[in-house]
């Protein structure tokens, strides 16, 4: 990292290895299918927690200002496996956390290492979909550090033909509510770090090792015994969403919470 890069005190040991697994798919070979019956491209905004909700509002407004005719659909449900037509998305935008501890705290106050396992397995599934479907991974801390750069990337990815500086300025101004949400979570995550960092470090290390840094297919289930059942239901694929089908048995049992470890 450069000398001017902001300090990231909440990062866990080996969190950089986790971040290296957060893939995008930006080339011409990436799948961009518009589902049959959809009136316009369907773009998933995959995010968790309150900060994700606030970012979604900013992105929706930015698309409207730039006259980008797409449906941006916020969801926390992981896309089903398959080669693109199963999940029903034309493109996917994934919001990656500033740190895993902040992500844990944002979805469940005082959440434990089981919640961290659920979140990294969710990201594992999304990165597997990036093997074939057009995907932009947007990191929350970078969005707040260099908002106009990240917002321009987002708009270009979604198909904006002409991006005006004044529209980027307005979108950057809209991030106030996001900054407030992040600041509140940051304080709580610092306490979480002080109280239980070794447990989180151990859980992340175990997840990276048992999954071969999330290269193994399929990703392990988000229904972690020591995690949150409510969170698992929000992260698992939802096979009855519009334009969605679950032809892979792993997705059907994952929705029901009946999958084995893999």
Write the layout of secondary structure elements.
Elements: H1 15-19, E1 42-46, H2 49-65, E2 71-75, E3 91-96, H3 100-107, H4 113-129, E4 135-139, H5 140-145, H6 147-158, H7 165-173, H8 176-210, H9 229-235, H10 249-256
Parallel strand pairs: 1-2, 1-3, 3-4
Helix pairs in contact: 2-7, 2-8, 3-4, 3-8, 4-8, 6-7
Biggest beta-sheet profile: 4 strands, parallel
- Judged by helices, strands and strand pairing, the structural class is alpha/beta
Helix content: 40-55%
Indicate the overall shape. Answer: globular
User: What value does the average pLDDT take?
Assistant: 93
Our estimate of the beta-strand percent is 5-15%
Specify the number of helices.
10
N-to-C CA distance: 36 Å
Rg estimate, integer Å:
18 Å
H/E topology pattern: HEHEEHHEHHHHHH
Uncertain residue segments: none
Strand order of the largest sheet: 2-1-3-4
The count of DSSP E runs of length 2 or more, i.e. the number of strands, is 4
Your description of this structure?
The chain is an alpha/beta fold. It has helices at 15-19, 49-65, 100-107, 113-129, 140-145, 147-158, 165-173, 176-210, 229-235, 249-256; strands spanning 42-46, 71-75, 91-96, 135-139. Helix 2 (49-65) packs antiparallel against helix 7 and helix 3 (100-107) crosses helix 8.
Outline of the structure:
By secondary structure, the chain is an alpha/beta fold.
């Amino acid at each position: 990292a450069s000398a001017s890069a902001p300090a990231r005190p909440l990062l866990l040991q080996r969190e950089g290895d986790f971040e290296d697994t957060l893939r995008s798919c930006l080339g011409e070979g990436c799948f961009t299918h518009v589902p049959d019956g959809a009136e316009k491209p369907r773009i998933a905004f995959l995010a968790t927690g309150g900060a994700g909700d606030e970012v979604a509002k900013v992105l929706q407004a930015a698309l409207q200002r730039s006259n980008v005719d797409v449906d941006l659909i916020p969801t926390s449900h992981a896309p089903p496996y398959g080669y693109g037509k199963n999940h029903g998305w034309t493109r996917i935008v994934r919001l990656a956390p500033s740190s895993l501890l902040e992500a844990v705290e944002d979805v469940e106050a005082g959440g434990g290492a089981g919640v961290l396992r659920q979140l990294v397995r969710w990201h594992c599934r999304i990165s597997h979909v990036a093997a074939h479907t057009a995907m932009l991974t947007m990191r929350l801390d970078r969005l707040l550090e260099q908002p106009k750069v990240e917002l321009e990337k987002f708009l270009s990815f979604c198909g904006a033909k002409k991006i005006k500086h004044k529209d980027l300025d307005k979108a950057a101004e809209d991030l106030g509510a996001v900054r407030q949400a992040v600041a509140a979570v940051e304080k709580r995550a610092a306490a979480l770090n002080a109280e239980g960092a070794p447990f989180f470090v151990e859980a992340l290390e175990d997840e990276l090792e048992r999954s071969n840094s999330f290269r193994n297919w399929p990703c392990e289930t988000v229904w972690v015994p020591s995690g949150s059942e409510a969170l698992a239901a929000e992260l698992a694929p939802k096979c009855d969403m519009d334009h969605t089908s679950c032809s892979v048995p792993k997705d059907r049992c994952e929705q029901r919470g009946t999958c084995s470890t893999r």
